Amino acid sequence: MYSRKALFPVVFLVACIFLGGCSTLNVNHLSPRPWQADTPTRVALKFWTMDYSCARDGNRFVITGTALPRTERFPAWSSWMSELVITAYISDPSGRVLLRQTFKHPPMSFPPAAGIPFTFTLTTTRPVDTPAITFGYRMILLAQRPSTEKRNPLKSQNAQVFFASQEALRQ
After folding, report:
1. Is Lipoprotein there in the keyword field (predicted)?
2. What count of Cα atoms within 13 Å lies in the side-chain half-sphere of residue 28?
């Protein structure tokens, strides 16, 4: 009645929708720390260290801290941060992400003199019994501040670009 060639795209699409709906985000590889209210805590990632403390008020989680670049790991020519996105993750003990919030920092000279301050306020309607916390980031460093021209500075043949990312994984 139907050929295999005609059915394959339909079966493939249904499988993708079904499997995509079953996937979750996981942060076990980002060294999540148990939630400790009002206790200074540190998460050391490959290129950034997050110093933070957290508080909980019912269904609200507030995380305040500073992102500190591990400058010894960056190229010596790095002088401009064109992109920095920091994400705070609250997970269950198995690393499954329950809540997340992202903060995008504006471009700036690199490295920052005193780190980059952040505050995340995450709210949930579901109970979270034993939360853990960690962070992720995505960044682009350049050798120099791009000109104000409309063209993309990353497309220049002489552009020196450093990209680093550590984020939750889809499972």
Report:
1. yes
2. 8
